[in-house]
Amino acid sequence: MNLQPLLEKSARDHSHLCPRQILGVRLGLAGMKALGFESPPDKKQLLVITETDGCFADGLSAATNCSVGHRTLRVEDYGKAAAVFVDVKTGRAVRVAPALDIRQRACAYESDESRHYFAQMEAYKIMPDEEMFTVIEVHLAASIESILSSPGMRITCDMCGEEIMNEREVHQNEMNLCHTCARGGYYHVKQNVISSIGLYPQ
Ligand SMILES: [Zn+2]
Ligand SMILES: [Zn+2]
Q: pLDDT tens-digit profile of 124-151?
C-alpha cells in the first residue's frame, strides 16, 4: 500500500503532517483490512467510530473516506487513539488500537533518529501492522440500526419546541423529548428567559 497519497490528503486537510495523522491513516487501513476491505467500500458500508478527535481522526478519514458529514464517522471522545470499524452489511465489528509499547517499538525502528517525534513519523510509515496494532472482535453496545438511525426523520421536542433529527428523541412520560430536556445536556442555561435579540450583547 502506497501511503503517500493518503498522508498528503490528510496533511492537506490539516496544513501539517504529524505522527498522529500517520497513525490514523495506518490504523484506518488496518481496520478496513481486518474487515476484508482492500479500499474504502462505497454505499456507506463502513462505519468508523473513533475514540478521539483531532489529527488522529483526520488520518482515519483520509484512509477510510468516512466523515462526520457523511455520517460514516462517529466520535466517542474517550481521548484514545483507537477506533471501531463496523461492516454495516454484516454487522461485524473490530476494534483496532495501538500496541501498548508502540512508541518504544517506533524508536527501535528509527534508532538513528534521537528526536522521538521524527522517529515516530518515519517508523509509523514502515512498521508492519502486527507490530503497531492489536485487533479484537467486538459487539456494539447499541444496535447498528439505532446508531445509524433514520437520517430523514424529524420530530419536535414537546418541551422546548426545537427540532430533533435522526431519531435522537427520547420517549419519556408519553412525550417526545430532546436529549437536553429529558436527561440534561452538556450546558446549563444562564438566564431562563431570553429572546432571540437578547442573545446578543447590547
Ligand atoms: Zn497533527
Ligand atoms: Zn427539548
A: 999 999 999 999 999 999 999 999 888 7
> Quick one: 118 and 68 in the same domain?
yes
Ligand nearest to the CA of 157: 2
Residue 188 within a domain: no
Burial class (CB within 10 angstroms; exposed 0-12, middle 13-18, buried 19+) of 30: buried
**Domain carrying residue 173:** 149-183
* pLDDT tens digits, one per residue of 37-95: 999 998 899 999 999 999 999 999 999 999 999 999 999 999 999 999 999 999 999 99
Say how many Å lie between the CA of residue 129 and the centre of ligand 1: 21
- The count of domains in the chain is 2
Alpha-carbon dihedral 159, 161, 165, 170, rounded to 10 degrees: 10
CA of 74 to the centre of ligand 2 (A): 23
Nearest CA to 110 out of 121, 98, 97, 99 is that of 121
